[in-house]
Fold:
Amino acid sequence: MSMNKSAIETMKNRQSIRAYDTKKLSESDYQRIIEYITAEENLIGPFGNKGRIELVQVTNNISEKGIKLGTYGFIKNPQVYLVGLCENKKYSLLEFAYTFHKLVIYLTELRLGTCWMGGTFSRNSFERELQLAEGEFIPCITPSGYPQQKQRVFDKALRYVVKADNKKPWDQLFYDGSFAKPLEKANAAQLEIPIEMVRLGPSASNKQPWRLVLSEDRQKCHFYIEHTPNYSKSLGYDMQILDIGIAMAQFELACAELDIKGRWKIADPGLELPNSLTEYMVSWTQD
Ligand SMILES: Cc1cc2nc3c(=O)[nH]c(=O)nc-3n(C[C@H](O)[C@H](O)[C@H](O)COP(=O)(O)O)c2cc1C
Structure:
């Protein structure tokens, strides 16, 4: 998938793009995306949950079916939308976000812009556009197209409001052996870059709810979520679970590039939690 490009460099350079060029997608980019989203292996998470990703072309925000796909003015000149569909269950959302973020990194490698969206779009209009199967739900979408060269004032203001460039430092996110001891970069050994990629990933409202505990023997990395109280409650799903799937994808893509072998497991080590908002999700175990 990485077309000889460095996924780590791509992850370092990615940022959410909300203003696009009016140019349509090239035929080859369009075909590459179709190929990607129709390949079954790209849609299955590490525990076997499978979602669906649909491509919708738009002209002035109107689909070919004539449906207006709304983003409340957040997105300018999108050329396509990639729409995610999965079950509204904890691990379905987790695994779906993992697969969807790998697509986001692939699009970034193609020099296409993306912006993960869970809230500021009309879910209703996208549901009408796509035929939802029983039990399917739209957890997220991303607009895409070639980024507009000049960043809009609106984009800059929005980045400021959500503090998009304000990524939390290591000592607020990563722990060593237990939650009692922050993890120092120098002690992360070969997992330093995969862990750093988690830190640089996108998250809903840039809340960065991921918390990692690296085991003392450095063989396991446990992923937790620190929920933001009442976040996304009104939307009827736990949007922040998606952030943890994103963290898994960022971590795994870095490991793959660095030839660090391991696998995902759900095996709660039963560590003492720092507060009642923190919940265990998944662990990465070195082979
Ligand atoms: C699950 C998720 C949902 C998001 N929902 C929205 C959204 O509804 N509208 C929006 O403008 N940005 C949305 N974002 C983008 C975040 O605001 C953005 O990722 C964050 O501010 C960090 O900026 P960066 O992506 O440029 O690193 C979402 C991101 C994630 C991961």
Q: What stands out?
A: The chain has a mean pLDDT of 95.
